[in-house]
Structure to design on (55 residues):
């Protein structure tokens, strides 16, 4: 019974997170763009650091 409810919970949480994200982007696009830019910049920094250490 638990294994049957777990995919439903995961699907619901994914849908809720996406819905909140869309609402946030619609209501505050400038803030969403700033946050997205920061996330991408951080990921690029991590990838550059890993590439420098590996290669």
């Amino acid at each position: 019974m638990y294994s049957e409810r777990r995919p439903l919970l995961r699907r619901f949480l994914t849908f809720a997170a996406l819905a909140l994200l869309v609402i946030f982007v619609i209501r505050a696009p400038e803030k969403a763009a700033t946050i997205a830019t920061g996330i991408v910049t951080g990921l690029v920094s991590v990838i550059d650091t890993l590439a420098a250490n590996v290669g």
